């Protein structure tokens, strides 16, 4: 059971903006960087945002990330049909011996 | 170009062992921490284990602690996961992933295509 909570689903029409939230705590998001990944099951996940709000080279600026306190969010603007995928936030958790943790995941559907 | 190629998956009976390997290329392997991440059928991504560049710090998810062992051979640019006492709930795609830095806390930036492990009698 993940300590990072995301909504199970989000949707929008082409061109719209979709925002995905990620709720954590003072032992994870509150003190560590947040990454966001896109994943289609059976394929390699892809890093979309690292260090809270940084886009790796090749990731379009339609994707943006932010963090405030113990929560983070990913925004997808100009939604496209091939944005349909599962999206995960992730960060390090300093509790116990420390571990990396992924959020519960959000399925994005383009209507 | 970063490439990570996993191997060693397959069908195994409960209680048996399996060793996964990951061959890395396209980057200086011993500059980076590495991870194993899995996805069980119908479930989300789950971090399994991570190891720093020099194997000085190793971490495991509670679900595999005491059963799985991560290791690396920097001379061979390879990452391994020894999985013992396998359970049906270990059935999943297992992904090898490179960290953003030499430490495990920053998280993965590149991933392999995964290898499927099925634990069933």
What does this entry look like structurally?
With 111 residues, chain A is an all-beta fold. Chain A is built from no helices and nine strands. Chain A has strands at 9-12, 18-23, 35-39, 46-49, 63-68, 71-76, 85-93, 99-102, 106-110. In chain A, the strands form two sheets. In chain A, strands 1, 3, 4, 7, 8 and 9 form a six-stranded mixed sheet that branches. A three-stranded antiparallel sheet of chain A has the order 2-6-5, with no helix packed on it. Chain A is globular. Chain A starts with 8 loop residues before the first strand and ends with a strand. With 121 residues, chain B is mostly beta strands. Chain B has strands at 3-7, 10-12, 18-25, 34-39, 45-51, 58-60, 68-73, 78-83, 92-99, 108-111, 115-119. In chain B, the strands form two sheets. In chain B, strands 2, 4, 5, 6, 9, 10 and 11 form a seven-stranded mixed sheet that branches. In chain B, a hairpin with a 4-residue loop joins strand 7 and strand 8 (78-83). The model of chain B has no long low-confidence stretch (mean pLDDT 97). At the A-B interface, strand 3, strand 7 and strand 8 of A face strand 4, strand 5, strand 9 and strand 10 of B.
Short description:
The complex is a heterodimer of chains A (111) and B (121). Chain A is 0% helix and 44% strand.
